[in-house]
User: Fold this.
Amino acid sequence: MRKPETIATAIRIGSPASWATAVEAQQQSNGRFLAATDEEILAAYHLVAAAEGVFVEPASAASIAGLLKAIHDGWVAPDQPWCVRSPATVSKIPIPR
Assistant:
């Protein structure tokens, strides 16, 4: 997507320079790319904050939203171990409401 409209500013840039690397990792790991709405991103953001006391930036919350969809769709078992990378902190961006 060239110019996505989203609260996740790191995603809003569209056509990321690392896209080819992400596709290669997805293919090698038999992974998936999932879309998340702004509402799902905010829900994931608040879930992580409430459950873990950690404030992630919206693009990282989008990863959590994708994980929740994968669990809901049965692609990831609810008791299966998982890891979501969150490279940015909210100290760099406004906190979503």
Remarks:
- The mean pLDDT is 85.
- Residues 9-92 form one domain.
- DSSP finds four helices and no strands in the chain.
